[in-house]
Amino acid sequence: MQRVVLGVTGSIAAYKVLSLVRLLVKSKRQVKVVMTPAATSFVTPLSFATLSKHTVSVDLIDNDTWNNHVELGLWADLMIIAPATATTLAKLSIGLSDNMVIATYLSAKCPIYIAPAMDLDMWNHPATQKNIRSLKSYGHRIIPVGYGELASGLVGDGRMAEPEDIISFIDSTSLPFQDLDQNTILVTAGPTQEALDPVRYITNHSSGTMGIKLAEECANRGARVTLVLGCTHLKISHPNIKVIPVVSAQDMYLACKRQFDTCDAAIFAAAVADYQPSAQSKTKLKKSDGDLNIALTRTPDIAQSFGQIKRKSQISIGFALETNNGIQHAKGKLDKKNFDFIVLNSLKDKGAGFGLTTNKITIISRNTAPLYFDVKSKVEVAKDIIDQMVLLQNEKQSIV
Ligand code: C5P
Known about the structure:
By secondary structure, this protein is of the alpha/beta class. The protein folds into 2 domains: 170 residues, 3-Layer(aba) Sandwich (Rossmann fold), CATH 3.40.50; 197 residues, CoaB-like (Rossmann fold, 3-Layer(aba) Sandwich). It contains 13 helices and 23 strands. It has an 8-stranded mixed β-sheet, with helices on both faces. Strands 2-1-5-6-7 form a 5-stranded parallel β-sheet, with helices on both faces. Helix 12 links the parallel strand 18 and strand 19. Helix 9 crosses helix 13. It is elongated. Bound molecules: cytidine-5'-monophosphate (C5P). Cytidine-5'-monophosphate (C5P) binds next to helix 11 and strand 18.
C-alpha cells in the first residue's frame, strides 16, 4: 500500500483536500496529513484525522512532545502539498522550515507533488514563478493550476486543481509504485509442447498472455522477474524480466528448479501438459491403415513439486481453469499443491478463456472467503492478483 504524506497549507482550497483524502484512501493508499497552523483556520485537523484514520500533525512541538517530521518524511512513498500557498512555495524553494509541512518536506526522500492555489496576480508574479522554477529544478512535479473564478472574485489562473485531476496527474506522471523492489519472482506461463516425434506434439490453447501480464506487473513494481515461458508468439521486452524459453513440461520443471530456491514468490500460470508421449520417436512416425494408440505418461507437476519444498516465507500462487464445480476443484488444488492462494477462472464465464484480452477471476485462499472479481482486462486482473500477493506478503512478514 502506497504511503502518502499530504501537506495542507492555509488557503480556502483546503476544503477540497478533504475529498482528495477520500480519493487517496479509496485508491488503496495510506494517508497521513500534516497541516500548517494557518490551514487549521480553514479545515479542522479532526476532519482530516477522521477521513485519513490517522492523527494529524500541526505543530513541530505538541504538549512538550517533539513531532517527528523526519520519521514522517522517511515513511512516505509520496508527498503531496495541496493547497500550496504563495508563501509555502517561497518557503519550500528556500527550505525555510518554520512549520511541520516544510520540515516534513525537507526530510522526505520520495517524489513530491505540489498543487498551488492562490489569486491570479500572486500566481503570475515573477517571484512566484521564480519559486515554481526552483521547485521544478529540484525534480518536484507542479500540478497545473486551473482557470476560473477565484476566492477574491477575480477570474483567471490560480485555482487549485480538482482532487480527481490531482490523482490523475499523479497516476499519469509517476512510476508505478515500487512495492516489489526487494523481490525476486518466478513466473511460469504459456503452453508446453510434448513431442511425439520430430514433427508432432501435444499441446493446448494457452497463449501465455495472463502469465506475461503478471510478470510485467511484478516487473513494473520493481521486482526482478524470471519468466519461464512455454511456446508462444508473444514478445516480451522489459529490463526487469529475464525470459527462459522452454518447450516441454520437463524443460519447464528443470528451469524452475534452478530458480525456485532464490525466489520470494512463484506464480505458476503456465498451462502445463499433464501427459507426454511415453516414447519419443527420433524419426517421423509413419502412418498405417489402422488406428494408432499412443501411450502417455504423466509430466512432472511443477507447482506440486515446489509446493512440497516451499519455505514458510515463500509465496506460491496457482491457477485453476475449470469448466464445472470450480470452487471445489480449485480448493482441492490449493491443498494438493500447497499454494498460498489459487486463481480460479471458469471457461463458462463470459470474458474468460483462451485468446481473450479479458479474464474473470475468483481468488481462493485457505482461511478467507473467496474473492470474486468482475470481468477486467488481463492487465487489471494482474494488478488485482499482485495486490493480493503483496497483502499476503505483508501478513507473513508481520507474523515473522
Ligand atoms: O491440476 P491443474 O493442471 O489444473 O493445476 C493447475 C495449476 O498447477 C496451475 O497453476 C499450473 O501452472 C500448475 N501445474 C504445474 N505443473 C503441471 C500441471 C499444472 O505447475 N504439470
